[in-house]
Amino acid sequence: MPDASVNNDLLARHRAVLPSWMPLYYHDPIELVAGSGRRVTDAAGRTYLDFFGGVLTNMLGYDVAEVREAVERQLRTGIVHTSTLYLIRQQVELAEKIAARSGIRDARVFFTNSGSEANEAALLFATNTRRSNQVLAVRNGYHGRTFGAMAVTGTRSWSASSLSPLQVAWLHFGDRLRGAYAGLPDADHIEAAVADLREVLATQVGGDVAALIAEPIQGVGGFVIPPDGLFAAVREVLDETGILFISDEVQTGWGRTGTHFWGYQAHGVVPDLLTFAKGVGNGLALAGVVGRAEVMEGVPGISFSTFGGNPVAAAAGNAVFDYLSRHDLQANAERVGSLLLDGLRSGLRDQPHVAEVRGRGLMIGVELVRPGGTVPDPAAAGVALEACRRDGLLVGRGGLYGNVLRIGPPLTLTEAEAREGLAILLDACRYRSDGGT
Ligand code: PLP
């Protein structure tokens, strides 16, 4: 059993001074004090294999020499950051690489410090360009915790407090287990989503709509994957009236899905704007928006960020980008991700409370339900999460009902580590008729 007493004092202090709504994983929350490769160590000296990479914040794993050295080099200059009012070589270099890789023609890059800010900026660019505050968003999507980002977040548990002036109309896109499109073949699913979009445009909005914002795979929503090609079909309708498309690539970017560098590429469509964050700085705060020049330039004098693209974060970003490319981690995500996905599917096939194992690359979800149906079972996910932790594996949790285990390890995960984590997961997800897993 984990030694809960180690962090009793820190936990009490946390509870006394930080807001009570800040979530902490585990019945006995852990403090991580060291990391190397794909493993982290807690204050009690226990080491865990990290199958969630922080929360997808560690793209390459822990203590990667190339990233550490790039950051140290920058720190040794004496300049952590001055101002984005001066030229920053690291920022320009990173922007060049991202623009070239974005797939967006004549792209511009604006750096921020978080995914929320990136989405906020993207919404700002789109609404200003289109002179409209109406936006389309997707049910069960998550886009962050700033005013606009919360307004387009389609799960009430994350967005109940938003009072944003954006007018948002909601679309059905993804869930294949329950709801309007449950069990439909891909072509019918896409047709239904397009019909839904047309109906929303005809009945729920008036005048111009600025943009649609969507995640190619819903992250916080439980790694929900719409059919390939859906965004292209939707885009055809958007193009009829010039509605812009924002692809939120905060979780799906940088090769995580294996088959593609960006999630949008599964759909055969290029967005007007895309946002990125999470693991780009391998733990340092680095995020941003990439967009077509007309859209990014269409907003006069609005955007300055004190810290966005600062030299230390940008140095880390360059090192991460170069490492990803040099080691072809996208291919590794595909290879090791397939091993995990196949292993989970075959190992959990007979489990009555596993409704679905889905995923792409190193973004894999296991949806737990009451046996034999599709009624979500968040308690079972909680039990499985604790069981994994007990056996030395950290995984994530999500989904509209909190009943999905989320697996998103660093893209450097080896086959041996995948097999090690797989064995723990299979055991943790085994159904036990005493009510737990
Ligand atoms: N967009 C998506 C898809 C996310 O998953 C998140 C965070 O989980 C965000 C935006 C917000 O990013 P941040 O927490 O860095 O503000």
UniProtKB/TrEMBL annotation:
The keyword Transferase applies. GO terms for molecular function: transaminase activity. Belongs to the class-III pyridoxal-phosphate-dependent aminotransferase family. Its cofactor is pyridoxal 5'-phosphate. Keywords: Aminotransferase, Pyridoxal phosphate, Transferase. Its EC number is 2.6.1.44. It comes from the Bacteria. Gene3D superfamilies: Aspartate Aminotransferase, domain 1, Type I PLP-dependent aspartate aminotransferase-like (Major domain). It is an enzyme of class 2 (transferase). The lineage of its organism: Bacteria, Bacillati, Actinomycetota, Actinomycetes, Micromonosporales. CDD domains: OAT_like (cd00610). Pfam families: Aminotran_3. InterPro entries: Aminotrans_3, PyrdxlP-dep_Trfase, PyrdxlP-dep_Trfase_major, PyrdxlP-dep_Trfase_small. It comes from Micromonospora zhanjiangensis. This is alanine--glyoxylate transaminase. The keyword Transferase applies. Homotetramer. SUPFAM superfamilies: PLP-dependent transferases (SSF53383).
